[in-house]
Every structure is written in structure tokens, then in C-alpha cells.
Amino acid sequence: MEDQQTSEKERSSEATNHVSPDFRPTYANNFRFDKTVWDFIVSFGQLKHIPPGTQAIEWNTSVTMPWAVAKTMAYFTFLNVVSEEMDRKSGIDTPDAMVPKPPPVPTQDSSARVWKFYNLATDIYEILFRTTVERALPPPSGETIQG
Q1: Using an 8 Å Cβ cutoff, are 106 and 122 in contact?
Q2: Of 64, 23, 28, 33, nearest to 45 (Cα)?
Q3: CA nearest neighbour of 129 among 101, 88, 108
Q4: Smallest Cα–Cα separation from 33: which of 77, 96, 79, 92?
Q5: Closest CA to 69 of 50, 41, 92, 97
Q6: Which sign, positive or negative, has the C-alpha torsion 61, 67, 68, 72?
Q7: Gap between the terminal Cα atoms of the chain
């Protein structure tokens, strides 16, 4: 009985790929995030020049996913970007206008949680944008920042 249950579990975890009849590939050069307590929402769009001389983002697709899927996607997206960077001799060229500003330094009275987030965000920033950020140190306090 146990072998039968195990093999049923194994079979149920094997997903097959199926393309929906309404599947359509699209292009995006802009994104934005929204969230709820249950879901993470990614919207995609394209910068348009309508009318000429002006810029607007035409949003065309939005994907809503549970936080567990967003977390897993973030992990694999990060690994794919780092792998592509390693495969290219000079990495992925990101125009200066696209590089976000480094994470803002927390105030001296910020909590240990805020400082932990700042340090993590700064580590990721340095990896992705191959830049060293001048770091601020949290003030000494009774709170410990555990990694």
C-alpha cells in the first residue's frame, strides 16, 4: 500500500506542458509590481511614443500569482540572470538610465529588521549591477541582526 501511495505522489508531481489555445507571446520593456496579502501581481507593458515626442507605457499583460510561486520565480529568475552574466564576457549591459538607485540607507533609529533588509537588498544590488555600494552601519544597540 505504501509503494502505491508513493508512486501516486510521484506521478502527481510530474506536470506535463500544455499550451492553452488563447496563449500569446508578447513583448515588454517595462514592469510594475502590486501586491495583496494573498498574491503578488506583475504587470508588463511597452514604452510607446504616442504622440511623437511624448512617452507613455502601454500596459498589456498582468499576472497574479500566490506568494509561494513569486518566491520560487524570484529564485529561478535570479539564478538565470546570474548564469547569463557569467556566460557573457562583459555581463549583461544595463543602460545607466535603467539601473535603479541603490537601496536607501535606513535612519539611525531604524529597527534591526530594517537594517537586515537594507543589507540584503544592497548585496543583491551589488551582484546584479556589479557595483559596490558605500555601506552605512547600523547603530550599536541591544538588538542583534541575525542572517
Answers
A1: no
A2: 28
A3: 101
A4: 77
A5: 41
A6: positive
A7: 43
- Answer positive or negative: Cα dihedral of 141, 123, 105, 42: negative
CA separation for the pair 30, 43 (Å, rounded): 8
- Give the cell for residue 29: 520593456
Polymer length in residues for the chain: 147
Amino acid (1-letter code) at residue 93: D
Euclidean distance between CA atoms 104 and 114, whole angstroms:
11
Phi then psi dihedrals of residue 63, to 5 deg: -125, 125
Matching residue, cell 550599536 = 140
Q: Return per-residue pLDDT of the chain as tens, 147 residues.
A: 555 555 555 555 678 888 999 998 999 999 999 999 999 999 999 998 888 788 899 999 999 999 999 999 999 999 999 899 889 888 888 899 899 999 999 998 999 999 999 999 999 999 888 776 666 666 666 555 555
Which cell is 68 given?
509561494
Q: Cα dihedral sign for 124, 128, 130, 133?
A: negative
